[in-house]
Design goal:
The structure holds two protein chains of two kinds.
Chain A lengths: L6 H12 L30 H29 L3 H4 L14 H9 L2 H32 L5 H10 L5 H14 L6 H5 L7 H10 L4 H9 L4 H12 L1 H17 L2 H6 L8 H12 L4 H35 L2
Helix pairs in contact in A: 2-15, 4-15, 5-9, 5-12, 5-14, 9-12, 10-11, 12-15, 14-15
Chain B lengths: L25 H39 L2 E2 L8 E2 L3 H6 L5 H31 L6 H13 L2 H11 L6 H8 L14 H26 L3 H9 L4 H12 L1 H16 L3 H6 L11 H10 L4 H26 L7
The chains are: A mainly alpha, B mainly alpha.
Chain lengths: 319, 321
């Protein structure tokens, strides 16, 4: 090891000495729900060349397994028509054909789909997180006898599979005259046990002294919630928001049954109808439509992946 | 989602340990009554939504399963156990759906467990580019199932899809994945496994990074290495995670709908009809409300068993710390 180390090498060297050469890697570099630092690139132990090469072949194969279909999606959306329907396959489009997007956009009301998706996702997420925040705060900070019974009732709703509530919720919404409306799309989804539970767990970590100090200053519950508790829990609230957002954007079966006209459909449903409308052979526009449906969530994921992965995996590992 | 199926342990009422004196003075009682009102006010929106759109439908669905209705008749007609008797006759749609669901869930769960563990272990080797691979592997888990379904529909296309390319490398012709009953169930299984695999891999990856180092040091002193080290040290240490992924995997796969709706529509025939598809198909295509409700009840009962197994054994998991 060299004697003059810059900062990065130093920490890498430190971790190398701290980790037994054949043990599993030490510190997790995938940060959990609490934010945490950036991934530092660390190299494993030195391996004999054939072993290292075998590992790199495996990692390349893994990369291909996930990247090729995604690449295929984007490249097909941009391929000129004849390059989609010729064999052998074209891997790199000879020209970028943006007309697939305009064709998808005009052959189905994608503008309306996009608007409906944005409205239902944003409003639905806002309401669900708001509702979750209020109840999480109540469970964490407001005294009430028997509240754990109510808590168990609410968290127990996670055991109800979506398909058992489907039929009756359809009947309820239909009786309210809300079929094919935004309230019909949004309201059945605002009850939250998942986000509430996630935020509640974070709220229990808030030091009691801080809340008590605010109380001494004469702050009421709502004030304490908005000025002390919510700012401290912001990372977890953000994580929960992102997960709820993705779930709502991807939602399929409820929008499918509750909407009946194309001007009320959301993107995933619109995509399905675009596919059946264009028939099996118009793959260019259909792939362009698929990109329109998939790209926003991919973008959200690439921007906030640490937080999203951390939030989703946190509960799985820590028993 | 995933987090939720963990045992809910130590739900301690937070403020109960703060000053609540034994002998409640009038002031405290008044404060508590005020807190009680506030409690209900804060809880109400969530509670109402969960009861109205969660518990009530579950109960009423059970009632509907003993009736016959088509949305058009003014009211459901009570028929007793008729729906269930019809469902469980041999050769019924439910039998096909149960078999398909079982095959789909088993293959998808076992496949993603093995594949995910291998990829997770590979990612934990701290190679160059593994950060990139981690990101790209997790990305499908973020995508709408409808987009995954349509993308794979294109890739499965025997004339223009990647499937033709892949099979022609071995001098074979691509099967008609989504339109023949021999392959339709496999097409949804493959597409679903592709969506889930990265998620399972990242869970294993994170778990492997969290494994206790001292056990490895001890095992290394005892001369364990390579496969033996993995078989007798890593694998048992990962068993809680494997258990968790098995249970959540079963629950998630058993409820898959969007990929089926975009890839095969449950067909041809009933060859890729699973329980969720049948529930949808019976209610909103064939308008057999009673049959759909009874199918939903069967599915609920099956998933409840899985969930109960989880809650029973989750607390007895092998603990490593």
């Amino acid at each position: 090891m060299s004697l003059t180390l810059d900062r990065k090498d130093e920490s890498a060297a430190a971790s190398r000495t701290a980790t037994p050469p054949e043990g599993p890697p030490g510190a997790r570099n995938l940060s959990g729900a609490h934010g945490g630092g950036r991934t530092r690139r660390r190299r494993g132990p030195r391996r004999p060349l054939p072993a290292a090469m075998a590992l790199y072949v495996l990692i390349a194969a893994t990369f291909a397994l996930f990247a090729v279909p995604l690449y295929w999606l984007f490249s097909s959306a941009l391929k000129p028509e004849h390059e989609i329907y010729t064999y052998p396959l074209t891997w790199v489009p000879s020209a970028l054909e943006w007309s697939n997007f305009s064709e998808a956009w005009t052959s189905a009301p994608f503008g309306a789909f996009l608007q409906n998706s944005i409205i239902t996702t944003v409003v639905g997420t806002g309401l669900e997180i708001g509702v979750a925040l209020l109840s999480a705060y109540a469970f964490a900070f407001v005294y009430f006898r028997g509240k754990m019974l109510v808590f168990a009732l609410m968290v127990g709703s996670l055991m109800l599979p979506g398909h058992i509530t489907l039929l009756v919720n359809y009947i309820t919404i239909s009786n309210l005259g809300w079929l094919n409306t935004y309230q019909g799309l949004i309201l059945p989804g605002i009850g939250s046990a998942f986000a509430m539970f996630l935020i509640y767990q974070q709220m229990r970590q808030v030091p009691e002294e801080l809340v008590d100090a605010a109380k001494m200053d004469g702050a009421g519950h709502l004030r304490r919630m908005s000025t002390v508790v919510i700012p401290i829990c912001r990372p977890m609230i953000l994580t929960a928001t992102l997960i709820v957002l993705i779930t709502k954007w991807n939602d399929f079966v409820w929008p499918l049954i509750v909407t009946s006209t194309s001007d009320m459909r959301t993107l995933p449903i619109g995509l399905m109808f675009l596919r059946s409308q264009e028939g099996y052979d118009a793959w260019g526009p259909v792939m362009a439509g698929t990109v329109i449906v998939a790209a926003p969530m991919l973008l959200v994921f690439f921007i906030a992946q640490r937080r999203i992965i951390g939030g989703i995996t946190a509960g799985a590992i820590k028993g | 989602m995933t987090t939720l199926l963990q045992p809910i342990e130590g739900i301690r009422p937070r403020s109960s340990k703060s000053a609540v004196p034994q002998r409640t003075s009038p002031q405290i009682r008044r404060r508590n009554r005020k807190d009680g009102l506030l409690f209900w006010a804060l809880i109400l929106p969530n509670l109402v939504a969960i009861v109205v759109f969660g518990y009530y439908p579950t109960v009423y669905n059970f009632v509907l399963s003993f009736t016959d209705w088509d949305f058009v008749q003014p009211a459901p007609v009570v028929v007793g156990f008729e729906n269930y008797v019809e469902l469980f006759q041999s050769g019924s749609m439910l039998m096909d759906a149960l078999r398909n669901t079982a095959i789909f869930v088993l293959v998808a769960v076992i496949g993603t467990l093995f594949g995910g563990m291998a990829i997770g272990a590979l990612l934990a080797q701290r190679l160059r580019f593994s950060g990139l691979v981690r990101t790209i592997a997790f990305a499908p888990h973020m995508l709408p199932g409808a987009a995954i379904g349509v993308l794979w529909l294109f890739m499965f296309d025997p004339n223009y899809g990647l499937s033709r390319w892949l099979f022609s490398m071995f001098g074979m012709e691509s099967p008609s994945w989504t339109t023949t009953s021999d392959f339709s169930l496999w097409s949804i299984t493959i597409a679903y496994a592709w969506q889930r695999l990265g998620f399972v891999a990242i869970i294993y990856y994170t778990a492997i990074l969290d494994l206790p180092k001292d056990i490895y040091e001890a095992a290394a002193l005892d001369g364990a290495r390579g496969w033996g080290l993995f078989r007798y040290t890593t694998l048992p240490l990962l068993s809680p995670v494997t258990f968790f992924l098995t249970i959540t995997g079963i629950i998630a796969a058993a409820q898959t709908f969007d990929i089926i709706a975009t890839l095969t529509n449950g067909g041809p025939g009933t060859s890729s009809t699973t329980l969720p598809w049948m529930i949808y198909d019976q209610a909103f295509v064939d308008f057999n409300i009673g049959t759909s409700a009874a199918t939903a009840t069967v599915m609920f009962a099956l998933l409840l068993v899985v969930t109960l197994v989880q809650t029973k054994y989750a607390s007895k998991q092998v603990h490593y710390s």
